[in-house]
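Explain the record.
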Amino acid sequence: MYDCRLARTASSRSIPRCRMKHLSASKKRFDTVWANFGHSTPWLLSSTIDLLALCPRGQRGIRNSTSKLERNETMGPLISVAWLQENLTRPDLIILEAGLPSAVSAGAVPPPEDEGIPGSIYVDLNKYFADEDQVLPHMLATPYKFSEDAQALGVNQDHTIVVFDKFGIYASPRLRLAFKAMGHDKVAVLNGGLPAWRASGPTSSPSKSGSRRPPGNFVANFRPKVFCDAESVREAMQSADHAIVDARSSGRFKGTAPEPRAGLRGGHIPGAVNMPFDSVLDQGVMRSADELQTIFDIHSLVSKRLIFSCGSGVTACVPALAAEVIGVTDIQVYDGSWSEWGARHDLPVTTD
């Protein structure tokens, strides 16, 4: 709120004469209408009028020009292509492509840089935000390395982050959840990813993606309960309040299909339920909330504390994202997933 004491110090001589007559008349009208409210009221209104006179008309509604930014400060887990098109030029927006050749899409390769979303930055998830000291694939990086990687990509603390991938929804939920684990909440997945963007038609923005940015200032604020380890899963197996959701295919879950990584047993964690990650999608787009609710209700999962698992902690984040869409918030992702559980002979496996 403006301080009228400061406004009153403004000299009326600084106001153009062509407006002084209008202001004088305005004061008289206000004084007459508000006289019954006390002798101090004319002084207050006079100060307000002086302030408006000093403020250019185009700036009086300045809050309206930022309202779109303020409305989107708290983001949901998904944003639409229409939202991204409308907000593409926001100065606080950064777009990251979650780059990961898909184990379920043979021969898939990242598209050329000039075929992505305008201004987007390609992020190789085999290199960025992964703990390179771990033998397991795609393990979450330490907060220090995560901060380094984010800064190298030009990510700032106040950025609104949109993540997408070329398969529709595949690796992007993993990148989003990684940022959530490091304390950043203004991050969302583009529903439908690059295919949905291309289907929407061309935009007026430059088509070049991967533009270089100055180093960012992002600093991780680690939240240890977003991802969990094998011991947490073992404890959850004994709890009626928990449910373990396996996002691998039905064949891998039952042990009838081979694992794509050598040395892993077939089957699943005892007591786990099978929800293949693509079952919550419709051609790479997240299903409606009603459809997702039905899927989760079939397995009686909505009232449970959920732990999601998959092959290497990537596609587990897809049904975890679906859970968020329908308002389930007590969720974790088992970071080691089957790459760890299937290799450790001290951990139980079943095909039932």
Remarks:
- The two ends are 66 Å apart (CA to CA).
- Residues 1-72, 204-210 have pLDDT under 50 and may be disordered.
- The first helix runs from residue 4 to 8.
